[in-house]
Design brief:
Length: 380
Amino acid sequence: MEIIPLARRRKLRTWSHGKGPSELKVHRRSGKAISLLDLASNDYLGLSRHPDVIEAARTSIDADGVGAGASPLVTGHRPIHQELEEALADWLSQESVLLFPSGFQANLAAVIAITDRHTTVLADRLIHHSLLLGVKASGAKLKRFAHNDLNDLEKHLKICRNHQTNKSPLVLTESLFSMEGTSPAIKEIAELCDKYGAQLIVDEAHSLGTMGIQGKGLCYELAVQTTILSGTFGKAFGSGGAFLAGSKKLKEQLLQTSGAFKYSTALAPPLAAAALASLKLIKKNPTWGEKLQQRAEKWRSRLSIEGWSRPLGNGPILPLIIGSDEKTLFYQHQLEKSGLLSVAIRPPTVPERTSRLRIALRQNLPKGTLKRLINALKAQ
């Protein structure tokens, strides 16, 4: 068993909802639960506790039970799944959508579907672990390019062209990086892929609902054509599960060949129903994401004024880079003493010497939260 330094050991804590819509209670071994204002979760729009979303899940449970009971190709595919797939395809102007029980599974399936040992995959240096495991499982050759660096990506694409095989290279990126808060120049990346004959997978897990026109993500806003678009319901949609969007041909290929799809119990119907209810709410409130970004801009400016390095990007993820593991844990504990929750993110999740507090803005945070955060960060 690998020996993990004390400052990097993870602890599994137990949580329950607090009184307010943006509060969580952490349960201690002593039996005492402490309520904290949640600045850590990815429930950006607060939809996991929205009454419409909860009611949709309850109605689905009454109709279909809790679990799907089988894989989609046996008896697991229900009308709510088809309805959600069609609604998402229409919303994102995609030919088709296929649902998965988790984003990790969806990303594995996406990479494996279009690569093999003859494929070269060019992945952003900070790409999500699930996509990297997809590359490993496919046997493809992995090359990393510097984070959001178009010049480095093009250099690798030129090398691929000079060593051309019968397999197109694949580029992997995210529209909003979950620990950095940054977004790549997706349109320019797509243009490079077109220029050099590469395929493109974009993971929009953290941007759907929060970024792009009407919350449709950056690929939609910039009219970027992807080979596969990956998205999840466990973030801004406040539910669970995930999907891949692309051509009808791709969907058929996944349906016939993807082990991650075929050999897992289908997405629980109540989660699909909740995701569909969230989609309807996002469509009815097309400025939610824009308002969240405006709030994020205010937070970034204030943190910069207070002496912190301005968090990069313009979405709801604001990393406060601290450096050492121990100091980051110290700040986490300081925030918890002040009733705020922001988890210390340490290597290997982030690069060495870049441990950080990851601040996740949520729509339902009460007024005065930023002031509380600033005061807590100042406390020694």
